[in-house]
Structure formats: structure tokens, C-alpha cells
Amino acid sequence: MQKHILFILPYLNQGGTEKQALSLIEGLRDRYKISLLAPDGKGAPQFRALPILQREYTKWEINFFKGLPELISGIKEIQKEQAIDLIHIHGAHELMLAVRWIVPKIPIVFTVHGYHGSGTKFSYQTSCWFSNWCADRVISVCEAEYNLLLELGLDKNKLHLIYNGVKEPILDIDKSLELCQKFHLDPSHQIILGTAARLDEAKGLTYLIQAFAILNSSQSSLEQGAQDRNQDLRLVIAGNGDLEASLKQEAQDLGIGDRVIFTGYLNDLPNLMQLFDIFVLPSLQEACSLACAEAMSQGKPVVGTCVGGIAEQVSDRETGFIVNPRDPEQLAAKLRELISDRHLRDRFAKKGYERYRQLFSNEIMLEKTAELYDLYLSK
Questions:
Q1: From CA 330, how far away is CA 60, in angstroms rounded?
Q2: Closest by CA position to 378, among listed 25, 82, 29, 3
Q3: Is the CB of residue 25 less than 8 Å from the CB of residue 52?
Q4: What single-letter DSSP state applies at residue 157?
Q5: Other C-beta atoms within 10 Å of 111: how many?
Q6: Is 7 helix (H, G, I), strand (E, B) or coil?
Q7: Terminus-to-terminus CA distance in the chain, angstroms?
Q8: pTM for the model
Q9: Residue 281 has pLDDT above 50, yes or no
Q10: DSSP per-residue codes, 12-25
Q11: Most buried among 3, 17, 124, 328, by the most CB within 10 A?
């Protein structure tokens, strides 16, 4: 009989936490029996389509007094189906207290998926406290967070570094052509800069829009001999979020509204990303970016900021450029350098793909996670 692993998530939205958990479930469900306990959300359909045992509970931030009993009953129902051998909790350290109280003897693996906002350091600190009390093993998805967790007092013997990994995409040129038509893109005549992110403050998209405006205002910055290459630049921003309206307005105010394309959230991101000449990650806070790994898996040169784990993904001047956050002038300068040098883009692209295969492939993530599970499941 396969060992039984229960995944518990605090939400099922459309972010990196869910994508990574989904990849783990899809990649490991032939090796283990996997069940899922999670609230409903916009990202739920992909999980609900999986042939695994699933139960829902109400998000704690919506109604704690309803969600906690539902979490308890969900664990007990899943436990009745088959004894749970290990529980993997993602993102929300507070869930560990309830789980440890309900099933005190079942090993807990907890993944820190990165925290954002003004209370970031306190979130990391409480994550360390809860992990020291409740977790048997803790996964950090980048070395920057690994070091921060140690600094804040997490037991080193519990901590493991496992980078987020992504599958190498299977691309469909017809779907990419459909996206070209939908968003009025022409890769044969345009230089397409692209990013994929939640439209919120932590992703630094306002600085990317400002950098793009700088590029479009400096006629002498691009390739010599090109005919008005500024008009051939496009910026594609894939994602949704609270700042969508204000970012669109900013692009209009800067006079580049006709060259900045907001696609909204796309399930078909790889075929859109195939159209990019350069991938840009202007984040102010970031752990291990799945979008960056996806860009590297397609051999895209990357310009990213020196925050969190981005500098671990992008090797500066080897697979792309690392710039300071909140610095549109520097970001524009590095983008200008890549736009004007096709050979540099090609060199970064090749090295970036090699780095993806070495560190950020889905296979590596799955194998390292299974090795961690088996520390307990093989007993």
C-alpha cells in the first residue's frame, strides 16, 4: 500500500504557492497516495480535476470559528479513508498548531513560500517559532530565505533548501499565433519585453512601466541603423490584481498606453512567454519566482532585481542582469543593453536554460522533496 500524504493549503488562488503544490501533487501522486485539504478559490478547478481525495474548509481569515472545525473534521475524514503517514503544510505556519493538536504523532513538513507586505519580518519570525514547536522538517525555496530563517532562530537541523521547479513546457505555435492576434503582437518586427506577476506593490511593476517609458523616450539608445526601433517595443504584463487600474492609468499618463499590453491572468502562460525577447522581474519582494524559472526553461534572458532569491536564479552577466529595486533608470539601461545586442540576448538565453536544467527543473524539485518525505515514510 502506498504511503499517504495529506497536503494542506491555506487558500487556492492563482499564485506561486498553488502552482508549486500542484506540481508536487501531479508529480508525486503515482509514488504516494496524496490527499488535499484546502479552501475554495480561483485556482481550485485545477486541483479539483485531480483524481485524489479532497476536502474543503473555510479560510480562516474569512471565518476562523467556522474554518477551524472544518479543518479538524476534514483531517479526521481523510484519516478514516486511509491512515495519514505525513502532512505537508504550505505557506501558513498557523495551520501547524491545529494540525499538531489534532494528530500529534504524524510528521509535519512545512514549506515557507515567502511573505510580503509591511509585516514581512514578523511573519518570518512567527514562522520560525511555529516551525520550532510543530514542524519536523521545513522547506525553504531559496537560499536567501534559508539564511533569514536561520538568522531568526529556526532549528538548522529541520531546515532544507529545495528550489521551486517547473516543467519544461510543451509549446504550441498555433496557440502563440492566436495570442499574437489577440494582443496585437508581431515578434518579427517588435522587441517584446514581458513579465508575469500579481499586480500588487510587491512586484514593483510601476518601476517597470517607468523604465519602459524611459526606453521609449530615448531615440538614440537602441540599435544603430534601425528604423525608429522605439516604436517596435512592446511591454506585456500578464497577471491580475488590485493595481491593474492604476498601472494602466500610469502607462497612459506616461504616453505608452498603446505599447503596454495587460493580458490579465492566463492559464496559457508558456505560449505567451514564447513570444518574449526578454523576461523582466522588477520585484521588491520575492522568494523563488516560478515565472522566472519558466522563462529560463524557454531560454529567455532575464533582467531581475537583487531581492530574495532572484539573484540565485539569475546569474548576473551570465544568464541576465541583476539591478537594484525601485530604480527605473538602471532597469532601463540594462534593458537597453539587451535590446541593442542580439548576440548578448542569445548568449544569456543559452546559459539561462542550462542553469534551469541544473537547478530549477521540476524533476529536481520532485526528487528532493520525495527524499525528504522518505526520511519519515521509510521508517
A1: 42
A2: 3
A3: yes
A4: G
A5: 24
A6: strand
A7: 14
A8: 0.93
A9: yes
A10: --SSHHHHHHHHHH
A11: 17
> pLDDT digit string (tens) for 124-159?
999 999 999 999 999 999 999 999 999 999 999 999
Name 207's Cβ contacts closer than 8 Å, sequence gap at least 6. Answer: 282, 325, 326, 327, 328, 331
Is the Cβ–Cβ distance between 209 and 254 less than 8 Å?
yes
So what's the pLDDT on residue 231?
52
Question: Going by C-beta distance under 8 Å and a sequence separation of 6 or more, which residues neighbour residue 210?
Answer: 250, 254, 328
Closest-CA residue to 280 (of 237, 329, 216) = 237
Average pLDDT of span 276-287: 97
Residue with grid cell 514564447, as numbered in its chain: 274
Given this model, what pLDDT does residue 264 score? Answer: 96
Instruction: For residue 222, give the amino acid letter.
Output: L
Task: Tell me the C-alpha to C-alpha distance, in Å, between residue 328 and each of 187, 211, 260, 299.
Answer: 25, 4, 16, 24
